[in-house]
């Protein structure tokens, strides 16, 4: 089924009641899903939830819906306090284990790149991928090796290997990681210019892709 998570119903709705709930070490939340007549307000133990968010943020969870059956859910949204970063609310969504779901998974660069060994700086520009797969094929993280990446080189979304059964829905031409030239000798103006150059390169790549699509469509109409 999934990782078990204990939840309980809650009747608290006002800000005062929610603050009181949080002072008891609980996080308010809501369960959404097709088998529920209406969204179900719940509360979770902060002590149980926080380790789960750190180690298995994308995992399929098994919860017993109060007044219903045990259901498989995923975390669809986590709201945090903008100042303290404490979790203040969480949304869970029921899933069908036989139906594909669309979600975001964290990216992780591994290895010591050639460019870094030459003094370059690795910059991760995308921290997650949007993917589609069956719940039992959902990866915790998608890792990719940057060992062969040199200064001035980059990897695009289409270069990232994904597990079997996983379809990438992010823009294939999006830059995921790049190796910048050593910054020690660059002035602030030069560093800013380099950042602009990278942005323009991404924009040109997307524009060329769009033009190619338009040309293809036009050719079919002719």
Which fold name corresponds to the CATH topology of the largest domain?
Answer: Ribosomal Protein L25, Chain P
Q: From the coordinates shown, what is the CATH architecture of the largest domain?
A: Beta Barrel
- Quickly give the structural class: alpha+beta
Secondary structure tally, helices: 4
Q: How many strands in all? A: 14
Can you offer a commentary on this structure?
With 222 residues, this protein is an alpha+beta fold. The protein has two domains: 3-95, Ribosomal Protein L25, Chain P; 102-185, Ribosomal protein L25, C-terminal domain (RNA Polymerase Alpha Subunit, Chain A, domain 2, Beta Complex), CATH 2.170.120. It has helices at residues 15-23, 46-55, 114-117, 188-221; strands spanning 3-4, 7-9, 26-32, 40-45, 61-64, 70-80, 87-94, 101-110, 121-124, 128-133, 141-145, 154-156, 167-168, 175-180. The longest helix has 34 residues, at 188-221.
Entry summary:
This protein is α+β, with helices and mostly antiparallel strands. The chain is built from four helices and 14 strands.
